[in-house]
Write a structure and sequence with these properties.
single chain, 300 residues, alpha+beta, oxygen-dependent coproporphyrinogen oxidase, 7-stranded antiparallel sheet, two-stranded antiparallel ribbon, 8 helices, 11 strands, 26% strand
């Protein structure tokens, strides 16, 4: 994180990093450590595939650093393997100033637009239609205010996906919420259902999960603990869901259904996703921002 100042994206002049970012640096350290553990767990799944085809080696994450001209940067970690057709686990810590037309949309940024933001983003597109796709991100954003946001949601790609997967995914997130506030789960579940919705299709992207934003209870440690619990819950439940379906065969029709559902996934991320808009409006790395795009999709 910057010690002095960051570049003003409007005028090219220094803008002080918000003082609250000094406290938020611990969140950036956490996101990086969570990235390492998630990558290790997903690589272990690549090794666990029963009777893997000899021509398909187990995938391994390739990491690539990037630098944001206005301040900060991040690391992309992308794996293409025999279990995951594409999975990305990205972290970033960036700072600077929002453009004049964007700062009004961000709490606490209206005066000078100065911001600091750190987060982790995970999107997995498995090869098998039997294995659900997943998204998880958590972030800490600082202007003259400071808050946490994020969540996780599951997208089955199989028309006959078992209800147990959905139930267990939600149970893990509900337990994470309960450790901070029992009221979080119903509130954040509804927020997720409303957020991950495609108005032009009249349908949800998947089976939901939780979504929260602008979380600032006045107790940084409490809010940070909740955000860590969301990451831990994801790390515990998603590899378990993948393991349930390793080695299951699928049909051409099931693959077709998967590709169509991936198209819906792409539509949401390009048209409505806040993280995509935030990255594009703050000079982020384009490849990292669009990491969530599926490797192959279909529009019938």
């Amino acid at each position: 994180m910057a010690e002095s100042g960051a570049t003003n994206d409007d005028a090219g002049v220094p803008v002080p990093v918000p003082p609250l970012a000094l406290r938020g640096a611990t969140a950036g350290t956490w996101f990086a450590s969570l990235r390492d553990r998630i990558c290790a767990a997903l690589e272990a799944l690549e090794d666990a595939l029963p009777d893997p085809p000899p021509s398909e080696p187990a995938g391994r994450f390739e990491r690539r650093e990037w630098v944001r001209p206005g301040g900060g940067g991040g690391v992309m970690a992308v794996m293409r393997g025999r279990v995951f057709e594409k999975v990305g686990v990205n972290i970033s810590t960036v700072w600077g100033a929002f453009s004049a037309d964007f700062r009004a949309q961000i709490p606490g940024a209206a005066e000078d637009g100065a911001f600091w933001a750190s987060g982790i983003s995970v999107v997995a597109h498995p090869r098998s239609p039997k294995v659900p796709a997943v998204h998880m991100n958590t972030r800490h954003i600082v202007t003259s205010r400071a808050w946490f946001g994020g969540g996780a949601d599951l997208t089955p790609m199989w028309a006959a996906a078992p209800a147990r997967d959905t139930a267990d995914f939600h149970a893990a997130l509900k337990a994470a919420c309960a450790r901070s506030d029992p009221g979080y789960y119903p509130r954040f579940k509804q927020w997720c259902d409303e957020y991950f919705f495609l108005p032009h299709r009249g349908e949800t992207r998947g089976v939901g999960g939780i979504f929260y934003d602008h979380l600032d209870s006045g107790d940084f440690e409490r809010d940070f603990a909740f955000t860590r619990d969301v990451g831990e819950a994801f790390l515990a439940i998603y590899p378990e869901l993948v393991r349930r379906h390793l080695g299951q065969s699928w049909t051409a029709a099931e693959r077709e259904h998967q590709l169509v559902r991936r198209g819906r996934y792409a539509e949401f991320n390009l048209l409505y996703d806040r993280g995509t808009q935030f990255g594009l409006r703050t000079g982020g790395n384009i490849e990292a921002i669009l990491m969530s795009m599926p490797p192959e999709a279909r529009w019938p």
